[in-house]
Amino acid sequence: MLSIFNSLTRQQEDFIPIEPNKIRMYVCGMTVYDYCHIGHARSLIAFDMIRRYLMHKGFDVHFVRNITDIDDKIIKRANERGITIHELTDEFINAMHEDCAKLNVLTPDSEPRATDAIAGMIELIEGLISKGLAYAVPDGDVYYRVRSFKDYGKLSNQNIDELRSGERVEVQSDKEDPLDFVLWKRAKAGEPYWESPWGQGRPGWHIECSVMSKETLGNHFDIHGGGMDLKFPHHECEIAQSEGYHEEPMANYWMHNGFININNEKMSKSLGNFFTIRDVLKYFPAEVLRFFMLNSHYRTHVNYSDDLLNQAWNGLRRLYTALNDAPKELPAFDPNHPIAVRFSEVMDDDFNTPQAIDLLFEAANLYNKHHDPKDYVVLKTLGNVLGLLEANPDHFLKSAPNQSDDDTDLIEALIAERNEARANKNWAESDRIRDELKARNVVLEDKQGKTTWRRETQ
């Protein structure tokens, strides 16, 4: 039976959906003012893997990933560039979709934008005020009255008297309590705004997800996910808003993925070790980045370095090398194959992808040794469950970022010259060409009268 670590209870629990065989899942998405970085890639890949495995198990999954398209940083960046917030956010939403496609992240079933849910936010804020959980101040701001929600702090396991306001929770003199967080912000001069009962303004960050999740999945759904950095204050505030108003649980299982460190240091623009997904894909294939991320359990912190990416690249090449030797006929996937059974066991244990990938290598080794088509199908199918091994093996083994057709044509030409030299028994020329190709990080394999090639990591 599938079991999931629940951040709310801080223990691993058997997964029981609200409705049999149906899963409603909400994951906090991007604030779209810049290109996605590799921390975003961690979350995108982790929850895509979870979604894929749930689908593999036969669940009907409704997967929602929201877009925050109104925010202080968005307004600032749009003003700097002299464009509207919609022009800015459309640009980076398109870029995010391009990055997701390269990383083989499935398109969400629903992808709500915050600016399309303003009416629902106003309605929820009015409801919170009517319940005494929120209050408006004279200047037009509206705040959530944190101490009125007795369970505040239950997700992050913090005592309300010991809590600090946290990132994005502004401490203002007109608050009743420094812990109170903003639900609606009065618009400043030159900022975009919406009309509301409290004047012209825009929503606070936390209220957005409470409304977008409700409008797409209902008051109470199965799984809420996001990065570990969102646990407090964002997810804590979501719970206070949604459960305070609806008086029922927001989500049964809360899941959080770990952080990314760069060469054992926290990723930060100030440290100069900040990488976008696009930065990484200049040097590594996108599937290598996905494979690298899945080699760590989704809840652990991942250390990123070029050396570790190169190791992942070589590991992925080993799997594709096995797949490149395809049998003539492929049988149907056998879920009772010993490796498939063990794969389900480790993935049912809170999505243990490191052990699942170990099983992919075991399947590759079995196929290389016995050439049993059943092992080939198991390798291919289980790799696909993780969103891996979907490329043409020959193309993957020959590909490299920023490669040119001229580069590939030159390699093919050199191999043709070497084959001619071998046919003429000119072994010195044959060896010279092999060495030249090796210097280009190209590995040759002569088998059954045919020469194949692949690239290797520098």
TrEMBL record:
<dbReference type="GO" id="GO:0005524">
    <property type="term" value="F:ATP binding"/>
</dbReference>
<keyword id="KW-0648">Protein biosynthesis</keyword>
<dbReference type="InterPro" id="IPR015273">
    <property type="entry name" value="Cys-tRNA-synt_Ia_DALR"/>
</dbReference>
<feature type="short sequence motif" description="'KMSKS' region">
    <location>
        <begin position="266"/>
        <end position="270"/>
    </location>
</feature>
<dbReference type="InterPro" id="IPR024909">
    <property type="entry name" value="Cys-tRNA/MSH_ligase"/>
</dbReference>
<keyword id="KW-0963">Cytoplasm</keyword>
<feature type="binding site">
    <location>
        <position position="234"/>
    </location>
    <ligand>
        <name>Zn(2+)</name>
    </ligand>
</feature>
<dbReference type="Pfam" id="PF01406">
    <property type="entry name" value="tRNA-synt_1e"/>
</dbReference>
<feature type="domain" description="Cysteinyl-tRNA synthetase class Ia DALR">
    <location>
        <begin position="342"/>
        <end position="397"/>
    </location>
</feature>
<keyword id="KW-0479">Metal-binding</keyword>
<keyword id="KW-0067">ATP-binding</keyword>
<dbReference type="GO" id="GO:0005829">
    <property type="term" value="C:cytosol"/>
</dbReference>
<feature type="binding site">
    <location>
        <position position="28"/>
    </location>
    <ligand>
        <name>Zn(2+)</name>
    </ligand>
</feature>
<feature type="short sequence motif" description="'HIGH' region">
    <location>
        <begin position="30"/>
        <end position="40"/>
    </location>
</feature>
<dbReference type="GO" id="GO:0004817">
    <property type="term" value="F:cysteine-tRNA ligase activity"/>
</dbReference>
<dbReference type="Pfam" id="PF09190">
    <property type="entry name" value="DALR_2"/>
</dbReference>
<comment type="subunit">
    <text>Monomer.</text>
</comment>
<feature type="binding site">
    <location>
        <position position="238"/>
    </location>
    <ligand>
        <name>Zn(2+)</name>
    </ligand>
</feature>
<dbReference type="Pfam" id="PF23493">
    <property type="entry name" value="CysS_C"/>
</dbReference>
<dbReference type="InterPro" id="IPR056411">
    <property type="entry name" value="CysS_C"/>
</dbReference>
<dbReference type="InterPro" id="IPR015803">
    <property type="entry name" value="Cys-tRNA-ligase"/>
</dbReference>
<protein>
    <recommendedName>
        <fullName>Cysteine--tRNA ligase</fullName>
        <ecNumber>6.1.1.16</ecNumber>
    </recommendedName>
</protein>
<keyword id="KW-0030">Aminoacyl-tRNA synthetase</keyword>
<feature type="binding site">
    <location>
        <position position="269"/>
    </location>
    <ligand>
        <name>ATP</name>
    </ligand>
</feature>
<dbReference type="InterPro" id="IPR009080">
    <property type="entry name" value="tRNAsynth_Ia_anticodon-bd"/>
</dbReference>
<dbReference type="InterPro" id="IPR014729">
    <property type="entry name" value="Rossmann-like_a/b/a_fold"/>
</dbReference>
<dbReference type="GO" id="GO:0008270">
    <property type="term" value="F:zinc ion binding"/>
</dbReference>
<keyword id="KW-0862">Zinc</keyword>
<feature type="binding site">
    <location>
        <position position="209"/>
    </location>
    <ligand>
        <name>Zn(2+)</name>
    </ligand>
</feature>
<comment type="similarity">
    <text>Belongs to the class-I aminoacyl-tRNA synthetase family.</text>
</comment>
<keyword id="KW-0436">Ligase</keyword>
<keyword id="KW-0547">Nucleotide-binding</keyword>
<dbReference type="InterPro" id="IPR032678">
    <property type="entry name" value="tRNA-synt_1_cat_dom"/>
</dbReference>
<dbReference type="GO" id="GO:0006423">
    <property type="term" value="P:cysteinyl-tRNA aminoacylation"/>
</dbReference>
